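For reproducibility, we list the full input for the sodium ion complex.
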Amino acid sequence: MSGESFLSFCVTIALGLLCLSFLLTVLRVLRGPTLPDRILALDMLVAIAIGFIAVLGIRTGFSFHVDIAIALGLVGFLATVAFARFVMSRGVTEKQVPAKPRKAGSKTSRRRKR
Amino acid sequence: MIVLLLDYVAGILIVIGAIFTLVASIGLLRLPDLYTRMHAASKAGTLGSCVMLIALAVQSQDLAISTRALAGVIFFLMTVPISSHLLAKAAHASGCRMWPKSVRDDIGSSVQSIVKTTQS
Amino acid sequence: MTLYLSVILLALAWAAITGSFTLPNILFGVLIGGVTLYLVRAHIGSLRSFVRAGKALSLVILFFKELILSAWRVAILVVSPKMDLKPGIFAYPLTVDRDFEITLLANLITLTPGTLSVDVSDDKRTLFVHAIDCSDPDATRRDIAEGFERKIMEAFR
Amino acid sequence: MTGEVADMAGAMITTPATAADWLVIAPVIIPLIFGALLLMFRHEMRWHGIAALVGLAALMGAEVALFARVLEHGPVSMTMGSWLPPFGISFTVDLLGATFALTSGSIAFVCAVFTLRDIGVTGRRYGFYPFMMLMMAGVSGAFLTGDIFNLYVWFEVFVISSFGLLILGSEKAQIDGASKYAILNLVATTLFLIATAYLYGIFGTLNMADIVRKADGVRGGAPLMTLATLYLLAFGMKAAAFPVNFWLPASYHTPRIVVAALFGGLLTKIGIYALLRTLVMLFPVERAALADLIGWVAVATMILGVLGALAQSDTRRIFGFLVTSGVGVMLAGLSLGTETGISGAIFYAIHSMLIMTALYLLAGMMKERGGSFSLHELSGLYRNSPFLAAIALVLAAAVAGLPPASGLWPKVMLVKAAMDASAWWLAGAILLSGFLTTITLGRVFLLAFWRDHAGGHETRGTALPLLGYAALVALTVPIVVLGLFPEPVIRIANMAAAGLLHSSGYVGAVFAAGGGS
Amino acid sequence: MRTLIFRTAAPYLTSLMLLFSVFVLLRGHNEPGGGFIGGLIAASAFAILGIAHGVHAVRRSMYFHPMAISGFGLLLAALAGMLSYVFRVPFLTGLWTSVSFLGVKVDFSTVMFFDIGVYLVVVGAITSVALSLEEREDG
Amino acid sequence: MLAPILTRLLKHNAAWVLSLAPLWIFSHFAGMLGDVAGGVPVRGGLEWIPSLGVRFSWYLDGLSLTFALLIAGIGTLIVLFSGGYLKGNEHQGRFFSFILMFMGAMQGLVVSDSFLMLFVFWELTSLTSFLLIGFDHRREPARRAAVQALIVTGLGGISLLAGLILIWIATGQTELSGLLAAGDALRGSPFYLAAFVLVLGGAFTKSAQFPFHFWLPNAMEAPTPVSAYLHSATMVKAGVYLLMRLNPVMGDTLAWETVLPLFGGATLLVGTLLAIRQTDLKLMLAYTTVASLGMLVMLTGFGSDRAIEAAVLYLIAHSMFKGALFMVAGLIDHETGTRNIGALSGLRHAMPATFVAGLLAALSMGGLPLFFGFLAKEEIYAALAVGGAWASIAALVAIAGNALMFAIAFAVGLKPFVGPTVKVPRRTHEGAMLLLTGPLVLAIGGLAAGIFSAVAHRLFSSPMASAIAGQSLTVDVSTVPHLELPLLLSGITVALGVAAYFGQARLRGAVASLLEAIGWGPDRGFDQVMRGLVRFSAGVTRIVQNGRLDVYMTVTFIAVALSILMPMVVFDELPTISGLPDPWFYEVTVMIIGVIGLGAVVYAKDRLTAIVSLGIQGFAVALLFMLMGAPDLSFTQFMVETLSVVILALVMTRLRLSVSDHRPIGRKLLDTTIAGACGAALGLLLLKVTQFPFDETLTKFFEKNSLVIAHGRNVVNVIIVDFRGLDTLGEISVVMIAGLSILALIRIRSRNERRPARRKENA
Amino acid sequence: MEMVLSILVGLFFAVGIYLMLSKHVIRILLGIAIFGNAVNLLIFTAGRIERTAPPIIPHGLETIVGPVANPLPQALILTAIVISFSFFAFLLVLAYRAYQEIGTDDTDGMRVAEPKGEPLPPLGY
Ligand code: NA
Ligand code: NA
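The corresponding predicted structure, in tokenized form, follows.
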């Protein structure tokens, strides 16, 4: 098997595995049960996508995939941070905590932030 | 010859990376609570992506791409723990329960007390 | 000192992502790195420390080793048909006391076998760590103290 | 670097661009730059009003010059980036675009005069003038561009600026009105974008002159009927045609009065402009097939609009519904599609820009002098402010299409055109809507001006709001002049309509530059 | 957010992201990227700083009000197009020139300044949005 | 325009100066009498709106000139009268300017040659009369009357406009002078009947023909000079003028000769009956005006030479005596403070001159010999007494009407002055010079015209009748009674009139009980229509503009679905389904992820899940772009999706919202149908479009020149910053403005919530 | 391939519109976001699908050789994405402010500008 055809074989395998991972992770997003679980799964999706893009980069030979992967890492990070911040001030689900104390709690966390 | 070898290395690396990723997503599904799932995502998941990026760096014959891919790897390694930490902290602080079979929670007491004082 | 180091690191990052290690490009990187750091200057804690390159390198190597190991262990755990878990959060008393070092340690812990930094106490004395296997927290504490924490102190003091 | 491969002459315009050529883009650049500067110096609030006036005066100057040039030379065009059309974005200005641009610029200037006293510190700090400037950039761009996707972009520019103007003040009703306005307008512009996507899929080009050239070639195979209907819907929504006119009466009464004036004058007319541009110039065959549909839409719009006005107590809401009703009248012209019909619609649009702006300013002055917008509360204005009453009377006559104001002539043209085409119902509806408008405004005059309730509002202070009056007069004078001497405008409208129906001049102006491909 | 780890790391991440954003901006003409994406990345960088250290930190580090920066960006982009006037070519015509600097030929073009204008507009506007959302009613 | 200033300077005496204007006009027109009487119309004009074929042109023949003279002449007197009548009124200046404007409009109307010019002046008279009727605007009845007049005549106005344009289309003529020669073309045109009905609509409303008669008596809310002027001499006669004007071109048809006499006769009867019913002097006169207008219309409708002659004579006579009587009534009101016929008696001592004027006018109105009114009445009877059922009925109607008018004439012109003196609200004395000039001149004029009827006939009525008939008429008239049938009829009329005068009270009671029995009239109908109109509008508006965003959206998307599906089906633009797709497995996976994301957004139990799911679908789209060769898009989409989700999360942090999106099942079905139809429509159209061969010229050009001319390898970016840089300029404007609007939205709090601690921004 | 994408576009539109028909502003916003994506895919597909390579001129070449994805729709979509993102952000904040001012995100409750049961205008004169 030549290097090239081996590589393309591996690429196909990897893409298949990654697709499977995508689907499984999406399942977790849907299942939850708490918001942080979904956020985590979303973060995981980003990680898979980075791998996916890297594999595509190998497949097509274009260099720009790396930049996109890096940018994706960045924004994935940002998204998780923002969600974490959201969880911090709002609680894990919308239903779990009654409104009033949650309000007080969120205010506190605001104050604590400074 | 080197090119050929690099192709093989890259091929193996991407498959390994993909496997790690798959494992991470299986873990995400199977593990019982948020905190344990985070272990799967932040380790296996990150490693998977990084390995695949390294594969790209290896396979590319362009120095610019290789260095950039490696820069990307380092960048992930810088950000992933921070976001994991933030998520875990936020989840814990806002009362996301641990798996009932968890054996201990040292911050449990202190954090709960903080929440309580702010709520009153 | 850290500032200069940061600028140099940023310039290197610039060179790496542009893929060109020519002098003008690195100088340009220094310029951009300097400007970006200047923007956030107010929030960079003062840290008068120096770096032992060798020790730092050994820290990096340790880290990669631990990363691969931890990923491997998690992978095994996840795919094993019967998951035997004893997760929990334990408190880790910190020896390092500078923000930068605490942060570094916490991040490294997150990336190591079955551990995850959840929080740092307000007095910066305790790090709360979630472990996927919390059956023997003392052993884990020992590993950290003799592994990462020691190497960090060696590298940055 | 690779000169030997580059076929410069086959790609780029080589003739130099003169200052006169730049006139076609100046009405966009001027407000854009002023808007940016005003935003940069957001806190130098004392200078905002003056700067805006200077900017709008410059805009008006450019538009006057442009208008004169188009009148003299016929359509003019400039393709940005020196690329040959249709590869770059062309700004192509025919008499239709130039006329609308000039009218809108003048209205903006008048409104700016009104704002000098009306917009306070908060409004200035949070960007009233940048919003206004960018809105004018968008409006001018929409009137002048010769590229349909670029038209979409300018639409979005003025729409988002109008959002900004709409919410300045953050009153409850404003926020509520703005929500509906924003969501429905977003749907409208998105429909425009969707239609443009299909258009691109069919023609492979976005330059309107290029589309005109290609339209006959694709007719028969491509789904042009559906496309034309989609444009009708999208722009109909922008123009506030029934049954997709909700956004207008839901929101126009909520912002500051000068903003409502600006909106009433400009926004729906851009929808009308776009309808004329697309349906008459790009899809004439399809327009003819849709003529009856458009006609019924027109009838419903004008009648339901004026009925809506009759049902309101708030002067601003009355005027909002009257804007809608006027849209119906213009659509009637579009439905007819004859030169007189379209010319009537164009004239009506010019009239409508002036009159609707004036009406809202009037509502503002009525509120100032009478203490309320509600017909339940207003009273005694005839006694308090006879001059305002006189203006109100002229404006009412203008809206209702009565002499001696500007509304009569376009209505006559449209009725004539409708009767020429044996579209009796259309003619009847135009006349009926005028009649119902008379009733509506007669009642307003009666209740707000003539009636003197006990305990009515007493005007505080005796200082006359001079700037307000100045702005109102500046609009009323042209309304009367157009009523007394309509000939020049009719002739311009006729020429504009002819240019639209026989678009060879337009196409020629675009592709004259370098032959094209 | 009051977490030591994040607060310590955030400024470094911010400057790294800003650096990356400049990279994306400057290479946009030849590879994917450009002013808009660059601007978004830069805005994300400021958002990270804002979440970690609060709105004031970002305001201080940006020095100018973000909307003023945005306005300047628009002005820059428009002026880059206006330069064509001097050369008697239509609006927004790309004009190129090369400058030798330390033996390296650097291309300057109106197109580049246009893209920088895009970048500044996006940075300013998006950061302003993020900041105004971060800012509390009572803060 | 000068009037208010003048009035401020001269007070009421400005009337003397102002009356010079109509007087000058009068003399100007009088100078034309010679030519016009000789059958040479005076014409002229300027170009006004050539594009519409409208010239500013005038045409004065006997008809117009007589009208013009009446308008100017009576106008002069009215101005004088108003000077006295409104003495001391703070808005007298305004009044003068209104009435002069009105006069101008009226003059314009009768001298216009061009249709549209006629229409312009027609509408101007409506507008100015609106102002005049509502002059006393603080009283609700005045306001009602004004708006009623405006609405009724406005309705007529649009009808007239339609009719005129129709005539224009039918004949190609835009001027009356040209039209006069095109009568056959018009009568032969298929549009004749429509044009006829429309023109009648204008004329009948203006001239208060039954059933549009009600606005006129209400208009008596106006100050008496206005009533005297508008409702005797001028405005109401505009309709009659129009009919007379068009008689040569539209008359002589069955429709004309049926409809006009029918409505005219009905109006005559209704008018007189209602007049009897009144006790208010002005109202009595007003209803007789209605009746007289009916008479004129009836006569015009007959169209015979004598009928036209009669109409002309009656019109002139009526203008004079009615003007005089109105002014007399006004004088009485002004001096005594009441207009109630029952409360007035014995004024001859206090107001002798008024008495003279009243009596003379009443005599003319009663149609007694020597007066011009007699002449008119004789001609009427002569015209109607030609045999035939139709004419006989008309003659009977005329007799009845005239008799009742006779009674009312004397009720106004005689009754208040004779009998014992009674106490009235004000101390009574004779009116001032300004007040007396008008009625006296007119009343004496009526007598003089009767006595010198030959001159009057030669100068006025004969040319006018000729103009109406469209050909030269030679009918001789004389105030000397001849012993013929008309005289007999006159006698009967007088006898009946005398009887009615003395039996007034009983008649009044009878009519009143009749009206009560009917219980409804067009006047009350007007109120009902107006209220009904507002209620109906409110009802309709509540349906079409009901304030609910979801309804707005539903309608909008139904429109979307229809506007794509309908033409696709109707014009056969549906796509063909052919060719097998060949997606790769990972493309399919990405699409599936996208679809799962979509489903998750819809089914999400709470908003946060929905938001996260939103991230998934955006993510899938970005990956799809990546796979399809669009890295720039992918890049941007990743960033934008993430930022959207982040902003959503940031905003959600600050909202406390209810959780579920519960829609009732019916609603769900409807929404699903609409959404499904829209989706299908848009998808099908896309398929259809992509099945059309694609023109790649632009794409090839960009690919070819991107590097070599524009120096960029990334074609997409080169398009963004160079080929289509202007789009991007607009786009960043949008971004900037969005940022600024959001800043404004968040920073500006509404007043009620504004806190003292609102902080200053630092920048 | 166009067919598959047409179906996908139709699905995106259907879901977006379904959400936009909701009474809750937040759901409407989610719908708008999806609607925007649908439009982007629509523009993309309308320019025809070519899956082989992105429109980037490789180093060493001066023009594109061989089939690449059509760059023009991509540029148009970029503009559209940016614009729709700006609108989305604005609408979101607007919804938030509406919630603050009016106290609900249910459009049934958002009846300040056009209140329920408004009185008739004066019926007299
Ligand atoms: Na870009
Ligand atoms: Na763009």
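Chain E touches chain A through 20 residues (CB under 8 Å). Residues E 28, 33-34, 36-37; F 632, 717, 720 surround sodium ion (ligand 1) (CB under 6 Å). Both points were considered when choosing residues for closer inspection.
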